[in-house]
Amino acid sequence: MEKQEIRTFGRRHGKKLSARQNGLIEHVLPTIFPENLPANTGKILEIGFGSGEHLRDIARQNPAKIIIGAEPFMNGVASLLSAITNESDSIRDEYKNIRVFPDDVRDFLRTTDSKFDQIWILHPDPWPKARHEKRRLLQTEFLTSLSPHLSDSGEIIIGTDHWEYFEWILINAKNAGFHVSTPDFETIKTRYQQKNKAGTTSPKYLVLTRP
Ligand SMILES: C[S@@+](CC[C@H](N)C(=O)[O-])C[C@H]1O[C@@H](n2cnc3c(N)ncnc32)[C@H](O)[C@@H]1O
User: Fold this and answer.
1) Is residue 127 part of a domain?
2) Are 41 and 115 in contact (CB under 8 A)?
3) Among the atoms of ligand 1, which is closest to the Cα of residue 73?
4) Domain assignment of residue 185, yes or no
5) Region 42-64 average pLDDT
6) Is 89 among the residues known to form the active site?
């Protein structure tokens, strides 16, 4: 029997969506599904983009690349769609390079042999209770599975304000065979970062590259 994957995210649905958001999910989301991705165009993946503040930021900074976001929380997907469309529900010019997989990134990665110049994972759910540790996304096995999806000089950038999770990820990344650096870093403040549930002074970042 096939091994069932452990669910790494919490809710898929939060508060009721507005009529406009439901319309965007029905009509716009299918048009930006990440399929038939061209091999010769640079690509960046963001895993668990939340409401998409950072995804939009990298889309604006990298107009020549395709920016793919994976997020199973539909309210987050709806927030992103609201922010990247204009009043007539067309995608704004600066966001035309965004593609969205509205589900578990592991399902997306199984369907593609695309390689990414960067894979961003900002504030992965820390699942702080010991009995929930198995729900953490950044297990050694998952990090290992990202390696073939990195372009030659590709990097995985991870940020978390949960310093215990940071140390745990560091060990897993080394076990997965990555070279790991922990630079000082700044990104735009995501919604989760602003909540700072861990109560730490700042997020810490890891950059993983293939040796
Ligand atoms: C703590 S939130 C952080 C969201 C956002 N990056 C931010 O900083 O505001 C973690 C996000 O990761 C998403 N997530 C968890 N497991 C995932 C998976 N397997 N694939 C894609 N996204 C996932 C969750 O749905 C959630 O929105």
Assistant:
1) yes
2) no
3) 25
4) yes
5) 98
6) no
Q: Which domain holds residue 50?
A: 41-71+91-209
- CA dist 106 and 146 (Å) reads 10
Pocket test for ligand 1, best of 47, 99, 109, 143 (most atoms within 8 A of CB): 47
Closest residue by Cα to residue 188 from 58, 45, 46, 100: 58
For 157-177, what is each residue's pLDDT tens digit? 999 999 999 999 999 999 999
Q: Which atom of ligand 1 is nearest to the CA of 108?
A: 20
* CATH code assigned at 46: 3.40.50.150
Distance CA 133, CA 129 (A): 7
Q: For residue 8, is pLDDT > 60? A: yes
Domain count, the chain: 1
Residue 31 counted as domain residue: no
**What residue has token string 């759910």?**
125
pTM (global) more than 0.85 = yes
Q: Which of 89, 103, 113, 125 is catalytic?
A: 125
